[in-house]
Task: structure prediction
Amino acid sequence: MSSSRPRIVVDNKAVDGEHKTDSAYRPLALDPVTADALRAHVERWERERADLKFTTDLLFCWPDGTGIHPDTVTDWFQGHAKAAGLPVIRLHDVRHSYATAALKSGVHPKVVSERLGHASVAFTLSAYSHVMPGMDRDAAGAIADLILGVPEPTQDPDVRKSVRTDPETPLTEDRREGETPGP
Result:
């Protein structure tokens, strides 16, 4: 196979385009399910290519090797989304869905930025800052737990009493309500 090139639409015709930046030519790790699906597709593509003797390097093409118009791919994608009861979005918006899901699941912003091919983490964070509000609170709690060893909030009064509330009181001292700490 030759190097990858995007198929774009110019005057309603599908043509091979150019990548926007050099970062478009980068390896990306795939999860096992996606890798298996791609492997199966490549095997089917190689069989069809040999059986029908087509010479195209287009990995995603009609069985005879001719290119698929990008608008057809968009129509398929939107049809599958609708059939699955999902919102119908532009195919390009899948990038935004991926970035939002990755950041919300705790993937480091630098990794998200590199996978999207952004020039900087600052751009990624500015473009996807809308996913951050709840993450700030979660980060505060995670950092406090790590540094202070503060247990999760609880409704159990016996557990609440054992949480250190006075910096002058040693962690090992048990205090009961109404008692004052000794020297």
About this structure: The CA atoms of residues 75 and 91 lie 9 Å apart. Strands lie at 7-10, 13-16. Helices lie at 32-52, 70-83, 93-104, 109-116, 121-127, 133-148, 157-162.
